[in-house]
DNA sequence: AAAAATGCGTCAATAAAGCTGACATATTTT
DNA sequence: AAAATATGTCAGCTTTATTGACGCATTTTT
């Protein structure tokens, strides 16, 4: 039976040595992003649970508040999900009175999306704990540092 | 019918004005985190698709590689999911030869988890595009800036 | 004016990934 | 001997997403 150190070591032998990659890959920051995001979304998740809503509802409410009048197509593009995934979530938000649809003034096929006051309140309530968490993470940071972090996050996006 | 500007405005009237919150909440960075993470996970997602694996598999392979010998309980704590959610994913990874289990030397109830060489290769293949993306986001940044970003991400975590 | 494309809603079927709760087994601790 | 622990497993369920197809109203193109 080949040992791990053999050149013919079976690919199925367990490896006990820590991962070596000659420092090519920074696993630490990959993990940091994972943990940061996991906890970042845990705050609104708890609030949403009470109303029977989920993360998807949060995203929709957030973006409609940020850009009132955006269309369904805009939202699909932003969230990178399919029309059918959005449909259920959007319907629930409309039925619950958080979002309203208005036919587009120029192109009447469009359904422009607007928050109601309740929708705006919800978006703020969800953003509040996230904002507090961000402030805590920036504690003692200079304005330049804040800008650096924002630049980094912008750089993480796929440019379209 | 009450107008939007009325003090009695119905909570269900659509609001066309942009969200005003006296600058209390920084929506920009909330969005930046959303977009950054959305694109950050899109790279491995594409690779995983080909093997019929999902994000959950990625996380397991990643952490087992990072800390060979971790137990099932460790993994549950790290991922903050339930035993049953992990079970299926872990079983698939073991059956596919990416991860092996070994009874703990001291406590033989434990199942210590180790990557195989194939598991290590997979973890690296998944981390590689993420690493490239991070490097791109850090392009031209100083070592101090990198540290600032890491400190920020650490600060975003819930301290346990 | 007719044809094609677009924006949206909806239906049906399906899958991935998580959940709860209960219970079994082996092992270690008390 | 009894209790606690680490793990595995079973059954059933929910949420969130998927693909593909189709219909309707409207706008754009021919």
Automatic annotation (TrEMBL), chains A, B:
Q: Which protein are we looking at?
A: DNA-binding transcriptional regulator, MarR family
Q: Which domain of life is it from?
A: Bacteria
- What Gene Ontology terms describe what this protein does at the molecular function level? DNA binding; DNA-binding transcription factor activity
Q: Which GO terms describe its biological process?
A: response to stress
InterPro entries per the UniProt record, alphabetical: HTH_MarR-typ (IPR000835), MarR/SlyA-like (IPR039422), Tscrpt_reg_MarR-type_CS (IPR023187), WH-like_DNA-bd_sf (IPR036388), WH_DNA-bd_sf (IPR036390)
Q: Which residues form a coiled coil?
A: none
The source organism is Rhizobium lusitanum
Note the PANTHER family from the entry.
Answer: TRANSCRIPTIONAL REGULATOR, MARR FAMILY (PTHR33164), TRANSCRIPTIONAL REGULATORY PROTEIN (PTHR33164:SF44)
UniProt keywords, alphabetically: DNA-binding, Transcription, Transcription regulation
Q: Residues in domain HTH marR-type?
A: 26-158
Query: Does Zinc appear among the keywords?
Result: no
UniProt xrefs under Gene3D superfamilies: Winged helix-like DNA-binding domain superfamily/Winged helix DNA-binding domain
């Amino acid at each position: 039976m080949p040992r791990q150190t053999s050149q013919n070591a079976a690919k199925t032998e367990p490896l006990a040595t820590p991962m070596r990659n000659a420092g090519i890959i920074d696993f630490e920051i990959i993990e940091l992003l994972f943990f940061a995001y996991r906890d970042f979304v845990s705050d609104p998740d708890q609030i949403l649970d009470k109303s029977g809503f989920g993360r998807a509802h949060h995203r929709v409410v957030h973006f409609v508040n940020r850009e009132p009048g955006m269309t369904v197509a805009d939202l699909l593009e932003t969230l990178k999900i399919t029309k059918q995934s959005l449909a259920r979530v959007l319907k629930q938000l409309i039925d619950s009175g958080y979002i309203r649809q208005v036919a587009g003034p120029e192109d009447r096929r469009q359904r422009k999306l607007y928050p109601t006051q309740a929708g705006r309140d919800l978006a703020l309530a969800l953003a509040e704990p996230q904002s507090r968490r961000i402030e805590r993470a920036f504690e003692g940071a200079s304005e330049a540092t804040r800008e650096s972090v924002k630049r980094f996050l912008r750089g993480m996006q796929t440019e379209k």
